[in-house]
Design brief:
The chain is an alpha+beta fold and 445 residues long. It has 17 helices and 14 strands. Bound molecules: uracil. Uracil binds next to α9. The site of uracil has 5 residues, from α9.
């Protein structure tokens, strides 16, 4: 009987695995000596029995050790990074990364593509004509040293065990396991080299973790992994009941991010960038309070310094720099667009983020399956937020796309996402709380 059998049985019976047992599974699986069926059985045992904080940390470290790691130690400033568990209209990285660079941090960031109803930073950036994301790791580090900022495609050489395990989880109904999600996300972040990291853990209808308690538990697990690995990690739990900002879809979101970098833009997007950025600066640069950090970041935005870093990023990665000044002329535009009019007067009581994300995906802004081609100009632009007053027939959304049948389907989906009430409706909670690097939990809702 193989020792893997004993490891599976141990977890099946609810016992803790040792570091050596975890290493043996990961090394054997990546090396090809451990078969899929044994790892699948172990994943299912983990799904039901869970992992302790120590096991979760050890699993993450084993996944990090399965591939290359990026050394950002020689870069000027503190190397920082940011991760979002995924939302609808979430263009935060496009605004926050230049703000942090303007505030003296260095960001050499690896990002992903969209899948399902949530967007991906790489697809958004690639809607800027000429923008390249396929830089080598060496080129990414060099660029971050020169201009403080680089955003490139996730390298397959980092945490390859995560790619293998994720594919197996996907077909064995074991994706939704908190320690497996936490270790998967954190293995890629730790391998990517940043010393300080802010996590935006979303909760609500458009999020992976719908319930706030589940979002806090995921936040705690990831912050705990950071402690285990000697990284400074802070998590912020934020609402995703309605989309972030107004624009959902790649080039539409880039235009909105640029507006925000120019000092305008939606208030919720600016506030999220200020919150995440100030929490990150306060752990990255000891001696700076969250309030000091907010002032510094507001200056980065209002002085134009963050927009300047965005220009430098676009120039360095081959994109059309004019996008920063004339986004609507430079970015691709959809052939067709339609306006949706309110069916009745009242107050906006809900704009379901999941419904809007699915409508944008169906217009071509997102992928149903890995490898699907995107329509980078497609998507939705909302005109209202929850709590706003609406008159009958008032325009409340625009849809953009290239296919009349897809526009019809998206219109029907969006109409289901809007709820109007006769009485004034409260805005959904936005900032649920923070998990500090030492695990202290601050709840604001
Ligand atoms: N994102 C990841 O990278 N991994 C997961 O397991 C889930 C979401």
């Amino acid at each position: 009987m193989s020792s893997l059998y004993a490891t599976i049985r141990k977890k099946r019976d609810g016992q803790e695995l040792s570091r050596a047992e975890i290493d043996q599974v990961i090394e054997g699986y990546v090396g090809g000596s451990v078969p899929d069926y044994q790892v699948a059985a172990l994943l299912m045992a983990i799904f039901f029995r869970g992992l302790s904080a120590r096991e979760t940390g050890d699993l993450t470290e084993a996944m990090v050790a399965s591939g290359d790691t990026v050394d950002l130690g020689a870069l000027p400033g503190v190397a920082v990074d940011k991760h979002s568990t995924g939302g609808v209209g979430d263009k935060t990285t496009l605004v926050l990364a230049p703000m942090l660079a303007a505030a003296g941090c260095t960001i050499a960031k690896m990002s992903g593509r969209c899948l399902g109803h949530t967007g991906g930073t790489l697809d958004k950036l690639e809607s800027i004509p000429g923008f390249r994301t396929d830089l080598s790791t060496d080129a990414m580090v060099r660029q971050a040293g020169e201009i403080g900022l680089a955003i490139v495609a996730q390298s397959a050489e980092l945490a390859p065990a995560d790619g293998l395990l994720y594919a197996l989880r996907d077909v064995t109904a074991t994706v939704d396991s908190l320690p497996l999600i936490a270790s998967s996300i954190m293995s890629k972040k730790i391998a990517a080299g940043a010393r300080a990291l802010v996590l935006d853990v979303k909760t609500g209808s458009g999020a992976f973790m719908r319930e706030p308690d589940a979002a806090f538990a995921l936040a705690q697990a990831m912050v705990g992994i950071g402690r285990h690995a000697g990284r400074r990690v802070v998590a912020v739990v934020t609402g995703m009941e309605q989309p972030l900002g107004y624009a959902v879809g790649n080039s539409l979101e880039v235009a909105e991010a640029i507006e925000t970098l120019r000092g305008a833009g939606p208030a919720d997007l600016r506030e999220l960038c200020m919150t995440l950025g100030s929490r990150l600066l306060a752990i990255a640069q000891p001696g700076i309070t969250v309030d000091d950090a907010r002032l510094r970041l507001a200056h980065a935005l209002d002085s134009g310094a963050a927009l300047d870093r965005f220009r430098a990023l676009v120039r360095a990665q081959g994109g059309s720099v004019a996008v920063a000044d004339r986004p609507h002329q430079v970015l691709p535009r959809a052939a067709l667009s339609e306006t949706l009019a309110a069916p009745a007067s009242g107050y906006v009581a809900a704009i379901d983020a999941l419904g809007v994300g699915e409508a944008a995906r169906d217009l071509g802004a997102g992928r149903q399956q890995k490898g699907d081609t995107l329509d980078l100009a497609a998507g939705v632009v909302l005109k209202v937020r929850v709590g706003d007053r609406l008159a009958a027939e008032q325009p409340w959304a625009e849809i953009h796309g290239s296919d009349p049948a897809r526009l019809r389907a998206a219109r029907a989906g969006l109409e289901r996402a809007l709820r109007i009430s006769a009485a004034p409706a409260p805005s959904p909670a936005f900032l649920y709380g923070v998990v500090q690097p030492d695990g202290e939990e601050l709840r604001f809702v």
